[in-house]
Amino acid sequence: MKIFSPDGALYRFMQRLTQCVFLNFLWVVFSLPVITVGASTAAVFAVTRRMLDEEEGHIWPEFWKGFKDNLKMGIPMGLLTILAAWAVYLDFQLFSAAKEHSVVFLCIGIFAAYIFSFSLLYVYPLMARYENTFFNTIKNSFRISMKFFLRSVLLIIAVAFEVAVLIFNMHTLIIGILVGPVLVIYTISFAARGIFNKLEENPQT
After folding, report:
1. At residue 57, what are phi and psi to the nearest 5 degrees?
2. What backbone torsions phi and psi does residue 203 show, to the nearest 5 degrees?
3. Sign of the CA dihedral 181, 182, 184, 189?
4. Which end of the chain has fewer CB atoms surrounding its CB within 10 Å, N or C?
5. Collapsing DSSP states into helix, strand and coil, what is residue 53?
6. Based on the number of CB atoms within 10 Å of its own CB, is 5 exposed (0-12), middle (13-18) or buried (19 or more)?
């Protein structure tokens, strides 16, 4: 039957699923030292970008190249991402525990989540696609988030929804373990690809 042929939809789906599981495995292994999580994430963005452009070859060589190319910037970027996530988490924990001035902690948490989300939303797709300095990459991520404000908000909502579904119960959690990080990265990469293409075609947009 055609559906099982190399050109069939089922075959292509299973091939892509296998690639995503393997890519997710690489992300986990190369993120284990913690300090390398930024480089590992940028490497996955490099691979998913090529997937979206239908230019991908073998997953491992492309991932390894992306990891090496982004290792220098990926280490501080990954540590910054972890620190930002911890700071936002701490603010909301203080809000939950505080009996007085809880509104202050809530406002600080919301403001911190806004700044960090918009500053870091596109840093890894930018790292995977362009060469730039550490601070310029963060600045450009924030500027893109503000320029495409609605798209960025919808992207954050979509990612939050994906995470919520993947941790909904034990069955979805298994799927999340197998492909969760890559699914989130693929979603961000898809959104970033459209924005970057638009900016490249018309820099004054």
Report:
1. -110, -120
2. -60, -20
3. positive
4. N
5. coil
6. exposed
